[in-house]
Amino acid sequence: MRILITGGAGYIGTELVSMLSQREDVEQIIIYDNLSRSNFNLFLGHTFKNSERITFIKGELLDSRYLKKVLDGVDVVYHLAAKVTTPFANTDPHFYEQVNHWGTAELVYAIEESDVKKFIFTSSTGVYGSSKSSVDEHTVPNPRTFYGISKMRAEEHVGRLKDKMDTYIFRCGNVYGYNRSMRFDAVINKFVFEANFYKRITIHGDGKQHRSFIHIDHVAQALSHVIDGELASGTYNLVNRDLQVLDIVDTLKELIPELEFIFVNQHLKLRELRVKPNAALNKALSLTNPGSLTDELQHFRSRFSF
């Protein structure tokens, strides 16, 4: 099969390309990315298995004419490209709308005129907004940020494909964990870097706010396995941990006893969001159970140069 990955040079894309390149049933992987994050780690210092099957195309989501050409002969599309800037999810509304909303719309328009058979979109649990009780896939989205709104609108465009092909929407929690194309604006990744090198981390609010998380390995596993056909089309929450910010701090204190932390605006109670892991999804995609958070963060630290 021939696969196109928008945003394939990013954090999730780098891990997914690595997994897909090891599959013998994948004839070609086309990475379509505009390199807007100036992250070139996908291209450097290593060689993917079956690398001759991998092609890179620099392109924009809003270039619909070019997208149609690139989609010629493609069987599966992974749509990972997005404007993501944690924790500034309520700034630059124009860019979120242009990339996440209208960029997805242009891609969907192009796919409707193609022979694509499967479409996989990585959305976000941010579409739920906030909730003190655990939400699931039946919860009505109620985004509270420009980022969340743009992802919800993107989902609406993707919904048009459901009657035409296998279509999957994965609402990912906060992604964390080591890979070559790191994002250090994500909370756990940022904390681990600061704890390792500064021995001090900064906590916004009182630290008691809950968030849902998913390890980068599990995201890539889910995306890679979904093309095997064991999962019905639909919308799924992709999370495997529900943590308070203070839970992360406590784990890092175990690993780095001398760690210090300071609170900024400790009197503020920040937005809560708890998301139920989907056991049926994990079973259908044969996802491995996550190890302990301590082990994961220790492994993360071991990948630093010093």
UniProtKB/TrEMBL annotation:
Taxonomically, the superkingdom here is Bacteria
Q: Domain (NAD-dependent epimerase/dehydratase): give its ranges.
A: 3-237
Q: Which family does it belong to?
A: Belongs to the NAD(P)-dependent epimerase/dehydratase family.
Q: What is this protein called?
A: UDP-glucose 4-epimerase
Q: Give the species this sequence originates from.
A: Fulvivirga imtechensis AK7
